[in-house]
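Homework help board

Subject: predicted structure for assignment chain

Our instructor gave us this sequence and asked us to write out the predicted structure in token form, then describe one feature. I got the tokens but I'm not sure how to describe them. Can anyone check?
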Amino acid sequence: MRFLFALLFIFISISASATQWLKLDDKTFLIAPPSDARYLTSNQAILVGQRCAAIIDAHGDFSALENFASEVKKRIPQPICHLFSTSSDEEQILGMMLLANEFPDATWHAPRHVSQHFNEYQSALKDKLSRFEKSLQLSQSRLEIQSNAQIQQRLNKAKARIEKWKSRQFSPPTLLNAAQVTLDLGVHSLVVEEIEGATQGNLSILSHHNLGLFAGLTANPIPYVQDSNLEAWLTTVKKLRHTEEVTWLLPAQGRPYKLKALQKPIFFLEAAINSDSMMIPKALQAIYKPDDLTQTRLRLMYELAKTKQVQKMQRQGRVL
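My token output:
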């Protein structure tokens, strides 16, 4: 039964009911996951203009995204004209593929890497749906022994959702026609820029209305290092730290923060690049909150970053 309830959590998203819609101002909504999922799913944002609105980022919880799309259609009177992916992270892109189907008239903007490797994302989506389907079949076979009408009804809904997702056609995102472009939502302009950062391709979106920068994983207070170029990432956040056009940032995980707090990921990346030890520096620990959850995540992410950096050096014929 534990497996069955885990499956139901995937398809009948419990977390969606606890998603928080935060109204920053008349033109900006921040959508945060529940506190117990803040490191599992990504923050989202909706930027609103007089003419239309834009959605920034998605995550891999398809059921929650469907609920989110329904809420957008209820709460936002303007049509959705733009969708933005701030990274090339697989789960974020698969989620945005789903949202692009929910808002077919919107233009989806993503890093160039996504368009160049879109076939790989399509394969990843097929694999994900195949795993869902196999899990569902296993649950249905177990349910034949343990008859439960309510659970059977939920499984039937899950099956219908999978069939709907499998039947959809997915198109690649639109490439930016320059490294930096300005888009107008109607008395709300956005500057969209391709940047180097947390993943193999990244975007930042700057709102001229409130000087907020939406940079996703690249702006995470505790960097999550994947196959990242740490030196290029560090250069990006250092440049952002000294910009006069930004006053606050929204990361993929965690709360919005003021520009000066970029010093945290800067210090983290500098240590990951330059330190000779795999042990996290005490000076780095000291600038983060002392609670167990934060410190444990900080330690794990630092160890991951150092491991990735060592692997990179070894491939280049050097060892830290």
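Reply (TA_rk): Your tokens look well-formed. For the description, you could write something like this. The chain has two domains: 2-118+171-265, 275-315. That's the kind of observation they're looking for.
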